[in-house]
Amino acid sequence: MPVEHRVDVLLIGGGVASVRCARTLRRRKFAGSILIVGDEAVLPYNRPPLSKELLRGDVGLELIAAEPASWYERQRVDLLTDAPVASLDPDARLATMGDGSTIRFSQCLLATGAEPRRLTIPGAEHALTLRTFADAEAIRRAAASGRRAVVVGGGFIGVEVAASLAALGVEVTVHELAPALWGGVLGTTLSAWAVGVLNESGITVRLGEAVSSLDDVRADLMVTGVGVTPRVALAEAAGLAVDDGVVADAGRRTSAPGIFAAGDVARVDGRRVEHWHAAREGGEAAALAMLGELLPEPRAPWVYSEFAGHLLDVVGWAPTFDDELPLLGGHVVAYLVGRRVEQLAIIDSAVSVDAARTLVAGSPSPADVERLAS
Asked: May I ask the CATH class of domain 118-224?
């Protein structure tokens, strides 16, 4: 007979959003029971190093863990790994696990993340993708020094993987369909700088070039990084509102009472930001909302990337912009909507990210941005 468990807070997803939610609940003196369930067989971990330090072999799994194993016991947070959730009933406050057991909860966070998009061209089945620790390990095993690799996709993952492979001695070619890296969403100025950085690392970058087949590609290793899709199947089956992610408000409340969403799967106030910072802050906001506490003022989105020895921070939100303006000797690119700056790209910490987040929230002028360095 299937086992039924009861828990005050159920956190679905073994990533940083769930761990940060649990951490915030305990820091706010929440004494109820907390259970994290994840479908990977390892402790929750931070994903950014997968394409960087972990792929290069600079760190191991224990150093990218969201919290050490002992933390869960100390904080009385129960953890189930390799435990996929099969279905969710918001009205009954019931989750059914893959093994048939059930979990009754008072409140639940959906932090199921996203999964890589798959190319539908011949030979795509032979390419590797990067989303999990196991994916990173598979790419690193295949990246024997001196081999040739092709990376399809010049977004954040593609650029980072290419740079890490080059650091391992692999000859790398990047193919990007758009005329600029990052699908063109960060403009041509930043793309031109990044192409130069990658070229200096021995990486060939081919922009505006479609790959119609991977069957004829001469490479020992192929990696595709063409974006991700939010993992909304569980939410859709549960009847939650879904629109390019699980629809949620600033408190990460979904359309069902007692159900919250955070991380890559959540579309918060019309935005879905696929990054560690959004997941971390989303988990914290969900915890505060669960406790009925006031939320902090939302801050400008922030994503970061590291490749070939350079750090790139992108602050703000400008999915479309009217102009891109190099500032501070080209170390900052401002993205203008009208005459106001709605987004900044910051190279190698040219200005404080914290100060930039505060400034961009007020739609500053380019002159205001210049003063950040003073």
From this structure: alpha beta
